[in-house]
Amino acid sequence: MTPARLTTAQFGTLEWDEPLGGYSGRASWCGRDVELILSCPAPGETAQALQAAASLFRDQPIWSARVEACALEELFVLKNRNWLAEGEAALSRDMFLSRMRLKGISIGGGGLFSFRHDDDDMFWGHDIVVTGLLAGGPMRANLEG
Questions:
Q1: With the C-alpha atoms ordered 124, 26, 33, 70, is the resulting torsion angle positive or negative?
Q2: Residue 1 has pLDDT above 70, yes or no
Q3: Which of 50, 58, 68, 103 has the fewest Cβ atoms surrounding its Cβ within 10 A?
């Protein structure tokens, strides 16, 4: 039987979500309420994902800055060269970052993570997704959806 709920001291109660392949709930990231998904190889096998999430959440300001730097490096120039609406002025780096709104974080036991951001219509409604590994940091920023 699939454990429908997982309760932790750090992340509260998370619910098993079969389509996501993990436990889903809410968590605070840099003062913002976001979705948290713990990706697990099987229901109830949460130890590694919880350990990885605790490590990520322990250093929120550092990880947040690293994720933002990756998004800037991979998508800032793309926005200003290819995604400006007619009559829209080029964005500054600060403007670009201020329009990204973190929606959710997914992390698995192997340390693979993704940060999903709302794009505030910078890329016409596509999510900005930064992926990486705890061991190596953010590696890629993509547009999805």
A1: negative
A2: no
A3: 58
